[in-house]
Amino acid sequence: MIARIQPFLLPLATFVVALALSIIPLGDRMAPFRPDWVPLVLIYWAIAKPQHFGLLAAFAMGIALDMLTGSLLGRHALALLPIVYLSLRLHLRIRVALVWQVTVTVVLMLVLYHFLLFWIDGVGQRAIPGPITWAPLLSSALLWPIVMFALGGFGRDNVKAT
């Protein structure tokens, strides 16, 4: 029984940490640059273990993030589904790509994520904050290689940095 639960402990812990990092208060200057922790962790696990983490995990994490942040219920869930779907579809190609190629792919997925959040806010007639909406892309792009290697680099023994 424990052997069946153990492979899920690290991913579950990373999901909890990602949710916690998403709601930790930051200063007024740093708040717009808060990295997209939940999408980063979901993308990682969808690529590293696609047989275990898919659209249901993305939906559940999105609903949890919506409840924790007090946003429109389903907003993050709807935005996370396409990026996890793309991660699942492309996981074999992404796993063998170079680090910079994986980073570019993840940044493009995060652009889609932010566009969907922007679109949902527009449809819901919420105030659109402007260009600062895209600020988390910068911090997330810089953190992706760190997140990837901290979580195990997709289980690869040697990852080229060039």
Approximate strand percentage: under 5%
Number of strands: 0
Give Rg in angstroms: 16 Å
Which runs of at least 5 residues are low in confidence (pLDDT < 50)? Answer: 157-162
Using the coordinates above, name the CATH class.
Mainly Alpha
Number of helices: 7
Quick recap:
This protein has 162 residues and is mostly helical.
List the helices and strands and how they pair.
Layout: H1 2-5, H2 9-23, H3 37-48, H4 55-69, H5 75-95, H6 99-123, H7 135-150
Helix pairs in contact: 2-3, 2-4, 3-5, 3-7, 4-5, 5-6, 6-7
Question: Mind explaining what this structure looks like?
Answer:
There is one protein chain. The protein is mainly alpha-helical and 162 residues long. The protein has one domain: Arp2/3 complex 21 kDa subunit ARPC3 (Orthogonal Bundle), CATH 1.10.1760. 67% of the residues lie in helices and 0% in strands. It has 7 helices and no strands. Helix 2 packs antiparallel against helix 3, helix 4 crosses helix 5 and helix 5 runs antiparallel to helix 6. The longest helix has 25 residues.
Keywords for this structure?
single chain; 162 residues; mainly alpha; Arp2/3 complex 21 kDa subunit ARPC3; 7 helices; 67% helix; disordered C terminus
